[in-house]
Amino acid sequence: MIIRPVAPSDLEGLYQIAEESGPGFTSLMPDRDALARKVEHARASFSRPVGLPSDEHYLFVLEDTETGALMGTTGIDAVSGQVRPLYHFRHSRQLHHSHFLGLRRQFHTLTRCNHYRGCTEICSLYLRPAFRRANAGKLLSKVRFLFMAQYPERFTPTVIAEMRGVSDHLGRSPFWNWLRRHFVDLEFASVTQLVGAGHTEFIEELMPAGPLYTHLMDDAARAVIGQVHPDTRPALAMLEKEGFRHRGFVDLFDAGPTVECPLKDIASVRAARPYQLMTGTARPEHRSGQPVIIANGRTEGFRATITDQCRVCPEEHTVTVPDALARRLDLSEQAEVWLLPLTPDQARRPQPATQSHSLSAEGYGARPYAL
Question: Buried b vs exposed e over 247-279: b needs ≥16 C-beta within 10 Å?
């Protein structure tokens, strides 16, 4: 399997992913015209010289190199909330206190806001259930941070991720069911389709701006505030290991949490390192024997995969890979490559001075991922 930028030939595969992912996955909607525009936007973003990040959207696909099928997607919005506002509910507490009566009461509230203005957003992560395999989800998630480490000038100091909230197998959200009864009489699937297509005017027109007191909601709606869809739990767990934290902002429609982390503090960004490529066959005793993510040093021609065939020599800042792998990544001798251990603490673990790095990773259950 290999990660690469999306191409026009991927349109049908993207459409299948958009259909499989279901309502709530607003970054990829089953609309061929909209998907075609997204592909062209991504292609232009990869090829564009960037000094300061703007409206670039980087969409990657995970390809099964044996069949050519699309296994999944993953993406980055360089600056989110710039073209149109990025709305959330701020989940907070309010204290009502009467000195005269000696009464004090604390309430949880949701207040509409557009707190995240001008942040980089990771998005569109989806691993198709038919292609579940070891480390595929990790590759989809971590390759974005490897790309950011290579090109930090293309991104903002803060990175966020909107996690998919709770909905059932029919795409019904308990949180939206309550909002629908009181404010916007539309099906959840219709609302997510509007948002995915960029039609957000109804938010200002119909969605409540003032505080919503959560104790007035029904139990089902209140219980899912800040919770994620079952398919999204693995993705959230990986982001938490990277340093992402929930600061109280949730989605307007399914109440899924938004998590954030400074770019410089993301574990995989800190762990990624450049090396000079040496091709050939490393002797078995010099191979790491553990999978690492390896990527070429390009933007438009970006390629990345997982391999256990690397020999890393930190003293010389070189890495030796087999010729076949170099060809798959479109690499030539002496080219710059980037490596990322799958487990960030492996990059910090002391190594004997006379040995090559042994970059290891922990196993991760192969399940569908979506955020």
Answer: eebbbbbbbbbbbbbebeebbbbbbbbebebbb
